[in-house]
């Protein structure tokens, strides 16, 4: 299976992913889990959502110790009260580093690749990764919830051509050319 990251402007990143139906398999969930983990490691990620590689299915993987995790149809069922702010990045938007608040601990119910249902508590960095990947699966950008001012500060710090709504653009004289892989390019004044 040949996987690749979708373009940051792809509509699939803004759509809520569909739950995986273990009773009506469209692909082998165990093989797909292995391929996602392999891709994540090849791209030096600590987490990866299926829609980042073009699959509209509710599944993500993340590095873990002593084992990696692949979560089908995850949902957060509880969280602690403590919130921690740390800088976060994303494979889809490289070089965009933003300080974000996340719950320090969460409890997640999910299916394993073989269909079993588990409820597991994650804390610290693994809780952060789960929350980040679940934002992807819900069609949200990882920085949603921060102010435009905070976003602009992070964007300018690394001289990135990206808008608050996640569109990558190239500057042309007095116009911005939005690069869009799903349709023809269009221009915004």
Summarize the main sheet. Answer: 5 strands, antiparallel
Order of neighbouring strands in the sheet with most strands: 1-2-3-6-7
Which structural class best describes the helix and strand composition? alpha+beta
**Measured distance between first and last alpha carbons:** 40 Å
If you average the pLDDT, what whole number results?
A: 88
CATH level-3 fold name: Peptide Deformylase
**Briefly, what CATH class?**
Alpha Beta
Can you give a write-up of this model?
The chain is α+β, with helices and mostly antiparallel strands. It has a single domain, classed as Alpha-Beta Complex (Peptide Deformylase). It is built from three helices and ten strands; from the N terminus they run αβββββββααβββ. Strands 1-2-3-6-7 form a five-stranded antiparallel beta sheet. Strand 6 and strand 7 form a beta hairpin. The protein is globular. The C terminus is likely disordered.
Features:
189 residues, alpha+beta, Peptide Deformylase, three-stranded antiparallel beta sheet, 3 helices, 10 strands, 29% strand
Describe this structure in a few short sentences.
By secondary structure, the protein is α+β, with helices and mostly antiparallel strands.
Helix-strand layout with pairing:
Blueprint: H1 29-42, E1 47-49, E2 59-62, E3 69-79, E4 83-88, E5 98-103, E6 105-111, E7 117-123, H2 124-137, H3 148-157, E8 169-172, E9 175-178, E10 186-188
Antiparallel strand pairs: 1-2, 2-3, 3-6, 4-5, 6-7, 8-9, 9-10
């Amino acid at each position: 299976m040949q996987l690749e990251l979708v373009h940051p402007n792809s509509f699939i990143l803004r759509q809520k992913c569909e739950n995986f139906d273990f009773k009506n398999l469209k692909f082998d969930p165990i093989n797909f889990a292995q391929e996602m983990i392999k891709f994540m490691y090849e791209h030096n990620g600590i987490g990866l959502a299926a829609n980042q590689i073009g699959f509209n299915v509710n599944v993500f993987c993340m590095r873990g110790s002593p084992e990696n995790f692949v979560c089908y149809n995850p949902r957060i069922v509880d969280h602690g009260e403590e919130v921690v702010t740390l800088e976060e990045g994303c494979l889809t938007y490289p070089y965009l580093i933003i300080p974000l608040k996340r719950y320090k601990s969460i409890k997640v119910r999910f299916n394993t690749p073989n269909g079993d249902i588990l409820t597991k508590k994650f804390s610290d960095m693994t809780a952060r990764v789960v929350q980040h990947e679940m934002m992807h699966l819900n069609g949200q950008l990882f920085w949603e919830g921060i102010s435009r001012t905070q976003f602009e500060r992070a964007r300018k710090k690394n001289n990135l051509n990206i808008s608050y709504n996640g569109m990558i653009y190239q500057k042309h004289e007095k116009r911005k050319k939005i690069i869009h892989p799903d349709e023809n390019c269009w221009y915004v004044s």
